[in-house]
Design goal:
Blueprint (H helix, E strand, L loop, with lengths): L1 H13 L1 H19 L4 H31 L5 H31 L1 H6 L1 H22 L6 H19 L5 H22 L3
Helix pairs in contact: 1-2, 1-8, 2-3, 2-6, 2-8, 3-4, 6-7, 6-8, 7-8
């Protein structure tokens, strides 16, 4: 299990697209926690998020494997890497379309809960920024990362007080833990 965790964190630290997917997962978690969705919508969104993260990790592993096998430029190696990246792109676009479809299908629920949506935006925006700061490539003094993580946890605690889904809140927490672990790995030079 520790090797799997290390692989996840390594991917977050070294792959910009993975960091973007983590930020997207935080946003989906905030939306899912902010509005009441049915079980089918919740499962679909969570599955889509996890599938994109999984695909990005496989893509990163394939890129490393190709780089290991091919020491110089090779057109077939480039095509292999591009195809794998294209697969992740297809999943990410599909997830975005599914997310939009869920919101459009539940437009009446969203409109009935505009106050909750506004609360999520007001607290969720700085929370998402905290996750992004933790994963950013620029090294900062470790106390700054500790403060940013503490601020993110505080903001998450506020959203949990009105959450419509502890599952989505837990997913957001998990993404914050991954973000903090990426910051720690940067400090350790991993």
């Amino acid at each position: 299990m520790i090797y799997a965790w290390n692989g996840l964190i390594h991917t977050v630290v070294h792959q910009r697209n993975m960091r973007m997917h983590i930020i997207s997962a935080v946003l989906v978690g905030l939306v899912g926690a902010g509005i009441p969705l049915g079980l089918a919508e919740k499962v679909t969104l969570i599955f889509c998020v996890l599938l994109v993260l999984f695909a990005e990790m496989l893509n990163s592993a394939l890129e490393q494997l190709v780089d290991l096998a091919i020491q110089q430029f090779d057109e077939k190696a480039r095509l292999t890497k591009d195809a794998a990246a294209g697969g992740v792109l297809v999943l990410a676009i599909g997830t975005t379309v599914i997310f939009a479809a869920v919101l459009v299908h539940n437009a009446d629920v969203v409109l009935q809960n505009l106050e909750a949506v506004q609360r999520q935006v007001m607290v969720g925006t700085p929370l998402t920024i905290c996750a992004g700061v933790l994963m950013h490539e620029k090294k900062r003094p470790w106390p700054v990362d500790v403060l940013v993580f503490a601020a993110a946890l505080g903001l998450l605690a506020i959203t949990i007080s009105w959450s419509n889904s502890l599952v989505f809140s837990s997913m957001t927490f998990g993404m914050l833990v991954v973000s903090a672990a990426a910051a720690r790995a940067r400090h350790l030079g991993k």
